[in-house]
Amino acid sequence: MLIVPNGQHDAINPRQITTIMPSLYIVATPIGNLEDITLRAIRILTEVAIIATEDTRRTRKLLARYKIKTPLTSYHEHNKRRKIPVILETLKTQDMALVSDAGTPVISDPGYDLIIKAQTVGVSIISVPGPSAVISALSVSGQPPEPFLFVGFLPSRKVARRSLLETLKMKTYTLIAFEAPHRLHECLSDLLKILGDRDISLCRELTKIHEQIFKGKISSALDHFSKPKGEFTLVISGASEQRITPNLEELKAEIIRLKREGETARNTVSLLAEAWGLSRREVYQMWVGLNQ
């Protein structure tokens, strides 16, 4: 049996086709400016039976702009367990599109869970590429584009955020993260404390009317954004080659700080061994030595 997605069987011999499997189209939509949509995306959103969307109000504005009348169904983090079976049932007979509230689905949204489930039942997953805040921010940041590491939204809890940053501090990759305005100051403070005063680009409200791109040091960004508004994409320079060689005094200071914050020996050793590229035994011996 040969299974092909709808709309893609022009080159297939009809005698070979036993089943035409409906498809789930992963459609990228504008991150701000409604003109940033591809002709293919408009066609697919017009042709599919239903569009699953993270934010129906926002998607309706986009559809109205391009006179698309395809029905919508809501699919987001809080209803995904209930909606995934419903969507899979629809995909047995009809093509569907998945869009996020902005940009490319699956990137920091619940689309991943739906795709995994759809794949397990044989649904064809087709990408309709387009806007991405990650790539847009990287392209204007002035930071080295290769390699880069995207970490999504940084954890909202301070301990979890600092733990993640500890694992990233020795990476030479350009780092990219999303951050909400109400957490920006706390986030920048942790970046400065753990990564040091690196170069950073803060891209606010990309492609929108109030787009702003700040380039400078993390300390300068802290001073500049006293009352931040809008969504931010952070592009942070990677560790310099000099920082790859462990500074033992700096490592001791990190151990002392984590002790004061209540971290256990086990967590501290695991965290710092990975972050500094040392063996767990080496870090544990330093922990023990500081207790004597």
What does this structure look like?
With 292 residues, the protein is α/β, with parallel strands linked by helices. It folds into three domains: 2-131, Tetrapyrrole methylase, N-terminal domain (Cobalt-precorrin-4 Transmethylase, domain 1), CATH 3.40.1010; 134-242, 2-Layer Sandwich (Methyltransferase, Cobalt-precorrin-4 Transmethylase, Domain 2); 246-291. The chain has helices at residues 39-47, 56-65, 80-90, 111-120, 133-141, 158-168, 184-195, 218-224, 241-244, 248-260, 265-276, 280-291; strands spanning 2-5, 17-21, 23-27, 50-53, 72-74, 96-99, 124-128, 148-153, 174-179, 199-204, 212-217, 232-236. A five-stranded parallel beta sheet has the order 5-4-6-3-7, sandwiched between helices. A five-stranded mixed beta sheet has the order 8-9-12-10-11. A hairpin with a 7-residue loop joins strand 10 (199-204) and strand 11. Helix 6 (158-168) packs parallel to helix 7 (184-195), helix 6 packs parallel to helix 11 (265-276) and helix 7 runs antiparallel to helix 8. The longest helix is centred in the last third of the chain and has 13 residues, at 248-260. The model is unreliable at 14-18 (pLDDT under 50).
**Second CATH tier, the architecture of the largest domain:** 3-Layer(aba) Sandwich
Shape: globular
Number of domains: 3
The CATH homologous superfamily of the largest domain is named Tetrapyrrole methylase, N-terminal domain
Number of strands: 12
CATH class term of the largest domain: Alpha Beta
Q: What is the share of helical residues?
A: 40-55%
- What's the arrangement of strands in the largest beta sheet? 5-4-6-3-7
The parts where pLDDT drops under 50 for at least 5 residues are: 14-18
Strand content: 15-25%
